[in-house]
UniProtKB/TrEMBL annotation:
Belongs to the peptidase A8 family. InterPro entries: Peptidase_A8. Its main location: membrane. One of its GO terms (biological process) is proteolysis. It is a multi-pass membrane protein. Pfam families: Peptidase_A8 (PF01252). The active site is at D110, D126. One of its GO terms (cellular component) is plasma membrane. This is Lipoprotein signal peptidase. Keywords: Aspartyl protease, Cell membrane, Hydrolase, Lipoprotein, Membrane, Protease, Transmembrane, Transmembrane helix. This protein specifically catalyzes the removal of signal peptides from prolipoproteins. It is found in: Cell membrane.
């Protein structure tokens, strides 16, 4: 399940980025929900929020380490930890999706532009990573509660 979910995220991420690169100019913005949600073609040579720009190979090395850790963890996590397995699939798919961009183009294609709050433009891979982290935190909380209950 982890690897199937990862492949689905990678395909969705890369296909959406292909569409943006093919049909939009950099900087072009298309409103989807008025001024709240737009598709905006953007390139990010750095990490989240544009940090560490120009450190491409640092990101590649870190991502390879993360991918290796996910592969290792996947084999050690029991099937009953479904939430954690889903989060690992999302994390793996997101990491590989952005890794492909960094290796092939030296930058990540971003296009989801939300204006409810001042938030950086992001992509499907970024979304998968954020959702994965939230699910991991929920899984950790559930495991903590179970452990606490068994100690009583």
């Amino acid at each position: 399940m982890v690897y199937i979910l990862a492949v689905l995220i990678i395909l969705l991420d890369q296909f959406s980025k292909y569409l943006v690169k093919t049909y939009m100019q950099i900087g072009e913005s298309i409103p989807l929900l008025g001024d709240v949600l737009r598709l905006t073609s953007h390139r990010n040579p750095g990490a989240a929020f544009g940090m560490l720009q120009g450190k491409r190979w640092l990101f590649v090395v870190i991502t390879v380490i993360v991918i290796s850790a996910i592969a290792y963890a996947t084999g050690r996590i029991g099937k009953e930890r479904k939430l954690l397995r889903i989060s690992l699939g999302l994390l793996l798919g997101g990491a590989v999706g952005n890794l492909i961009d960094r290796v092939l183009h030296g930058e990540v294609v971003d296009f989801i532009d939300v204006h409810i709050i001042h938030y950086p433009i992001f992509n499907i891979a970024d979304s998968a990573i954020v959702i994965a982290v939230v699910l991991m935190m929920i899984d950790m909380f559930i495991m903590w509660r179970k452990e606490e209950a068994t100690q009583r």
